[in-house]
Amino acid sequence: MHKSRQHSQCVQVVAADTAQARVQRGSVLLKQGEIDSAENDFHAVLRVEPSNSEVSGKLDLIADLRQYIHQAKSFYDRQDLVSSEYYLNKALEHLVWDPSLYRLRAKCLESRGEIRKAIADMRTLTKLVADSTDDFLKISHLYYGIGDVEESLSQIRECLKLNPDHKECFPFYKKVKKLAKMRESLNDAKQREDWMACLEKGQQILKYESKVLDIQMDTFRQLCKCNMEAGHIAEAIQQCTEVLTNSDPNDVDVLCDRAEAYILDERYDEAIEDYQKAQKINEESRRAREGLDKAQKLKKQAGKRDYYKILGLKRNASKRDITKAYRKMAQKWHPDNFNDAAEKKKAEQKFIDIAAAKEVLSDDEKRAQFDQGIDPLDPEAQQGHTHFHHGFPGGFMFREGGGPFSFKFNF
After folding, report:
1. Do 103 and 146 fall within a single domain?
2. What is residue 15's predicted lDDT score, i.e. its pLDDT?
3. Which of 7, 227, 306, 377 qualifies as a cystine partner to 236, CB 3.0-4.6 A?
4. Taking every annotated instance into account, which residue ranges of this chain make up the domain J (predicted)?
């Protein structure tokens, strides 16, 4: 009798241990999406422990999960992607290791344009399947489609690590690697401030990849800056506008780049508008704040003496351009060229303005002040600085005798 009781107790212990092991295995299978196998384990436990409420709850959950998956697939087939994603989210709260659900949700997200979220699901997927070669290829294509060429290259390399002879991975790898090298050359030219090389590399990229909008827009973003620095104002404005219209209307850097180009084109109202928008998007942007202040001062200054206009120059003129324009204008408006008293008087004032323009624009410090909207020769705008006393730079002498003014070239 005693031995029989001991044997019975041992059987109960073994049964309990077996039941607990099956609960644990069933729970893992459920997380993996193996619903049928998990259900078999839970039913086996209930045959031994009919009152096990934990297992009964898991069987009720399985019924709900089957319904979620059915609804998700049904809505996906009807192209109701939002509803499909809703049920996939509910299922994935419990089936956290089910690769098929991540794959289906990634398809929903991709179709809805949520590419980075789709990529996140695909990357999770690669950790859950034995062979993720094709999944890395898909991830690489997704990154490429949103213009992230460098990350696309990284992912396609993962594909080749798993299968160096993959018939799709290797050709795509060569394509992405070539584009990545071209983009690196563009960035190097930009860093060196070699603006013409920057423009050349940018055009090569646009020609090489003419179909992927995000790659084109990123290239336009770079070319906007390079064209502006190269003095191609119209092209800079056009390319910045392309980015703001077709990619990101809230790109603070591009808004500021276009605003700078507008300033060079003396379109101060448009520059102010872009800087204000940039500042609204990012209140901490120093570039937007200082740019707005500069544009407002330049607009106010526009009604006053404009040294660039006096010499017929754009704001990005070189020192050589300034000297050349100064000599040309000084010769044209030399008062000795005019006999009529009224015309001579007008020429004298023009000559003074031309000399003032040369003084300001040939001096880096004074030119920088003027470019910030401050006239270094205006006593009201400039206090505590040396003012213009009608000296004539470049060898021009302005002498007053007892009669009319006399001027002498003295190069």
Report:
1. no
2. 52
3. 227
4. 306-374
Cβ atoms of residues 95 and 125 within 8 Å: no
Instruction: For residues 284 and 322, state if they share a domain.
Output: no
Question: Which of 258, 287, 304 is at the close of a domain?
Answer: 304
Name the residue with higher pLDDT: 346 or 200.
200
DSSP assignment string, 103-160: HHHHHHHHHTT-HHHHHHHHHHHHTTSS--HHHHHHHHHHHHHTT-HHHHHHHHHHHH
Cβ neighbors of 31 (< 8 A, separation 6 or more) are 94, 95, 96, 97, 98
Is pLDDT of 369 > 80? Answer: yes
> Does residue 101 lie within any of the structural domains?
yes
Q: Specify whether the CB–CB gap between 114 and 146 falls below 8 A.
A: no
Q: Does residue 394 lie within any of the structural domains? A: no
Check which CATH number belongs to the domain holding 338 and give it. Answer: 1.10.287.110
| Predicted confidence (pLDDT) at residue 10 exceeds the cutoff of 90 | no
The answer on pLDDT for 11 being more than 70 is no
Looking at residue 84, which CATH number applies to its domain?
Answer: 1.25.40
Domain count, the chain: 4
Residues 113 and 49 in one domain: yes
What's the pLDDT at 4? 47
Please answer whether residues 183 and 149 qualify as being in contact, where contact means their C-beta atoms are separated by less than 8 angstroms: yes
Residue type, 408: K
For 254, the domain range is 248-304
Residue that terminates a domain, selected from 203, 231, 259: 231
pLDDT at 266: 85
pLDDT band at 345 (very low <50, low <70, confident <90, very high): confident
What's the pLDDT at 70? 98
Q: Is residue 378 part of a domain?
A: no
Same domain, 196 and 263: no
**First-to-final CA distance of the chain:** 131
The pLDDT confidence band at residue 342, using thresholds 50, 70 and 90, is confident
Q: How much is the mean pLDDT over the chain?
A: 88
Contact in structure between 377 and 358 (CB atoms under 8 Å): no
Query: How far from 326 is each of 299, 312, 377, 397, CA to CA, in Å?
Result: 24, 9, 18, 14
Pairwise CA distance, residues 83 & 85, whole Å:
5
Kindly report the number of other CB atoms within 10 A of residue 300's CB atom. 12
- 277 and 328 part of one domain: no
Residue 44 domain-assigned (yes or no): yes
